[in-house]
Amino acid sequence: MPITKCWKLLAQYRFRCAMFCMAFIPMISISGAANAEQQSRWQIIEEKAKNHYVYFNAWGGDAQINAYIQWVAAQVKSKYDITLIHVKLSDTGEAVSRVLAEKSANNNQQGSVDLIWINGANFAAMSEHGLLLKQWANKLPNFAFTDPSNNPTVNFDFGLPTQGMEAPWGQASLTFYYDSLAIDGSVNNILPRTLQELLRWSRHNPGRFSYPKPPDFLGMSFLKYVLVVLHQQSDETVKAQLKQTATAKNTAQVLNPLWHFLNKLHPTLWRNGEHFMQSGSQMRRLIDDTELSLAFTFSAPKQYLLRLTVLIYLKVFAVMR
Question: What is the pTM of this model?
Answer without folding.
Answer: 0.69
